[in-house]
Write a structure and sequence with these properties.
Blueprint: E1 24-26, E2 38-43, E3 51-53, H1 69-74, E4 78-82, H2 94-107
Parallel strand pairs: 3-4
Antiparallel strand pairs: 1-2, 2-4
């Protein structure tokens, strides 16, 4: 059974409190993810001595790091926080969500 893919319109994120970051998307994803794109936050200098990779759990998204990202940036670090697919998927598909999240994470 194929899953229905729904993309949230960009304007829904335009005035989101605590998330002033430019959107970045990863669309060169592994097989099985054709036509999808993964959003992620990528802030700070690319050549920073330290990079914080902020991985969220389920059901959540990278927005949970909105208070931590400014602190990390203030230290001169780079921050990468991907949003994983399927946080709204039914619990019965938990194994599928974990597999998708792991596959997406390896793309970073």
């Amino acid at each position: 059974m194929a899953l229905e893919i729904v993309r949230t319109p960009e304007e829904r994120f335009a005035a989101l409190h605590g998330r002033p970051y430019a959107p970045h998307y990863l669309d060169d994803l592994p097989p099985g993810f054709q036509g999808l794109r993964a959003h992620y936050v990528d802030e700070g200098p690319r050549d920073a001595e330290h990079t914080f990779l902020c991985l969220h759990g389920e059901p959540s998204w990278a927005y949970i790091y909105r208070r931590m990202i400014p602190v990390f940036l203030g230290s001169g670090a780079r921050v990468v926080a991907p949003d994983f697919f399927g946080s709204a998927a039914p619990t019965s598909r938990c194994g599928t969500r974990i597999t998708r999240s792991a596959s997406t994470a390896t793309s970073f």
